Fold this sequence. Notes:
The complex is a heterodimer of chains A (547) and B (307).
Chain A: H1 4-20, H2 23-34, H3 36-63, H4 74-98, H5 103-107, H6 111-116, H7 121-142, H8 144-153, H9 158-185, H10 189-217, H11 236-239, E1 243-246, E2 249-252, H12 253-273, H13 284-304, H14 306-314, H15 317-342, H16 354-358, H17 369-399, H18 402-407, H19 411-442, H20 451-462, H21 466-474, H22 481-487, H23 492-499, H24 515-541
Antiparallel strand pairs in A: 1-2
Helix pairs in contact in A: 2-7, 3-4, 4-7, 4-8, 4-9, 4-10, 7-9, 7-12, 9-10, 9-12, 12-13, 13-17, 14-17, 15-17, 15-19, 15-23, 17-19, 19-20, 19-24, 21-22, 23-24
Chain B: E1 2-10, E2 13-22, E3 28-32, H1 39-46, E4 54-59, E5 62-63, H2 68-71, E6 75-78, H3 90-100, H4 105-118, H5 134-146, E7 152-156, H6 164-179, E8 183-188, H7 192-195, E9 200-205, E10 208-214, H8 215-223, E11 226-232, H9 236-246, E12 249-255, E13 258-263, H10 271-279, E14 284-289, H11 294-306
Helix pairs in contact in B: 3-4, 8-11
Amino acid sequence: MINTAAIRTRVCEVVRDSILDNPVIARELRTRMREWKAFAIFGGYVLLAAVVLLFHYGAEISRSSGHIVISRSVGLEVFRSLAWVQAVLLTFVLPSLTFSSLTQELERRTIEMLALTRLTAGKIVLGKQLAGLLFALILVICTLPLASLCVMLGGISPWEVGLCYILLAAWCYLLTSMGVFWSSLCTRTVASSLLAYGTAATYFFMTMSMGATATFAAGPSPSKVYVLAGLNPGFAPDMCTMNTQVYGIDIPVWLVAVGLHIWAGALMLLVSSTHVKYKFAERALPIRLMLIGLTATMTWLVIGDSTVTTSMAQNPEYVRGLIVIAVGVLLGLICLGTTAVATGVPQLQPSQSIWSYALSARKAFRTDIAGAIVFATIWSAVACGTLGISLIWALKSSFGSVTAATASPSIIGFIVSTLSRLCIDVCVISAAVAAVGVLSSCCAKLRKNAAGIVLLFTILAFSGYMIPLAYYVNGVTKTNGPLWQLAAFWPVTPILGLTVGWQDMPELWWQPEDSWMVTAAAYLVIAAVALWLSPKALARYGGVIEE
Amino acid sequence: MAIEGLTKRFGKLTAVDNLSLHVEPGDIMGFIGPNGAGKTTTIRIAATLLKPDSGRVCIEDIDVVKDPEAVRPLIGFMPDFFGLYEDVLVWEYLDFFASAYHIPPHKRRRLIDDVLELTDLTTKRDSLVSELSRGMQQRLCLAKTLVHDPKLLLLDEPASGLDPRARIEIKELLKELRRMGKTILISSHILPELADLCNKITIIEQGRLVVSGDVETIMNQCRGGKVLSIGIIDRHEEALAFLEKLGTLCDVKCTDGLITAKYVGDPDEDYMVLTALTTNGFKVRSFTEQPLDLEDVFMKVTRGAVA
Ligand SMILES: Nc1ncnc2c1ncn2[C@@H]1O[C@H](COP(=O)(O)OP(=O)(O)OP(=O)(O)O)[C@@H](O)[C@H]1O
Ligand SMILES: [Mg+2]
């Protein structure tokens, strides 16, 4: 039996402890609200929104060329610009609310006294984020009167306006968490502000183009859109009524956006809470499980999306392109994530061999970098596995059954054989990245210990150029074999080798179909060399640096 | 608090080298050493902010490395350089820390008034922290370390950068704390500051312990007896010769008519010197034991290594 009363009291306790009685929130808000700047931001924000609204309304009126009767949906039109101006302004304002929250404590030397109190790292991080979020929510709420004007003009219902505001709130939550995240990882406010603004702007433009392609590609009045179309709150007025179809199930786009933003924000807060200086918080298990969950859910949603499956049904070749893109994206994400989790100080005992340390499966969900290698491998296997399973599911739902799908050019067999090989490759590549991460952490005392990772990424990124180069050297008719071998370091080569039909076969030491083995071997060698060098580096350059 | 075999290295430099130290409840331990001796490093290790390379620090039998979160509420740490939240009021600042130490809201008001009175900041209750003078900020920081009623205070040069007046104020405050029965470890390189405050002192240099123990014991040990200073009106040369012959004095010197000499005889029989002088017709104007001077002890103890 579940004891609901006990759960309720526990929830109340947690809420009281972390939110209502959190001195960090009180102090941050006191500080911020005492400055005239806060009210300048409020004033400027509402004023700008109002001015944009007014101009748009004026334009609508003049378009109706002097007639008193204007379009019935003018409210929606005007509300669109309100959503856009808010999305843009929030993207400008939100990072600034939290990017200095922890770096400033470091720079002003207040962090030590804060860390010695009974506040937990989680409470500190949550306090910083909630203080920023509350301020942001006040900003957003200030424009509600403008939104209600739009409702009165017609074309949009109060319920839809409410959904748009929920999307805006989720955006606030994500970007304030992102600010705290960078602020906990950096030691300088300058660095964290650049990173916070950089990621916020990148994410804004990325989601904007996703939303734009969805709305334009889907035609004038679509009812179904791409699953990730609603991430940008600028599209909220259009997207809040839209659904997406995943494996035949209708899911509202706004729900996907809100869920994804909350998940990502929570993940970033969790990571931040392990990076508060002088505070010890070990959260490797939830962080790693959430990472795996996020990757798997995203893969599952995107592959199962009806727009994807319809094009698959129309064009089986599409599956190949999809696999190339999906594996490429997964690989990039996993490599970046692995680098992040693989840089730490080795907890290697003097008597322990680096091999047993790095490959101990029990450590997959522990915070030290030995776990990182195992974790990176498991993570990529799960990601590839989800990719394969969702592909098969997607085919089932669009072809009717798996047998119908296999009737067309042996899609299932292709997926299974291709993905299993690619999965091995992705696992090996991420293990190699993690091993290089181990090596760099072993050289903690060399100031340039990140060089190893940078070198590896350079190899990953540029070895792809070997393919055009191989053609360039000997002309298109006869390609240069050795340069082709180098291309195996480019992680997409095995994918190409498995998926693309080769017309102009170069003279290789192996068949293009087998290049996955060469890639796997190459990265296994990198991993082995990195691990072999690690104990030597640890003995020479290892240790803890303190500033 | 017990420190055992503590060692901390920064690269090649050994900042603290096999240091052992015991502070009993109620002690006021003066922790002194020249610049770079490793005082701050030791205190920061004890305050759980730095990890030692080897050795143990236990506070109330809790190891600071193994369970820092359990130790933190027990100590009040005041760093040598610190920052305050500048844009809040004084009482809000204290309220922040009271809340951060889980003191229930209804008790906070009384508590804040109490610590403000103790640190003599009551009139500044509603001022902005940034508007306080340096000395007041230092006292506010001390007030903050007292909010959660810690058993052990680790104060790293609490009077550094203050004018003499503010320094005396801080000293008075520390005496008040001593009366309240707190255990205090206080570091400084300004020695007279500690003389009448501490009951124990520890001197370290280059990370190594030089001496540790009661203030008096250490001073007697270091100077090997008392120093007498004798004022005589005339016949200085004769008096010098006479005193040297006496046997219970050595290092006899005469500067500006004042004779100083080290007394090596029976501590209770130093009056015999005076009797001998007067019976031999010397006109003695003053006869005193030189006041205890930690500075001398310090210079003496650390002389070798500083150079
Ligand atoms: N973070 C650090 N990195 C490298 N060396 C350090 C660090 N902190 C202290 N040291 C070195 O350790 C030694 C001891 O320093 P510490 O600050 O403990 O001295 P101190 O006794 O507090 O001196 P002061 O009286 O000047 O405050 C010094 O030589 C210093 O250079
Ligand atoms: Mg110091």
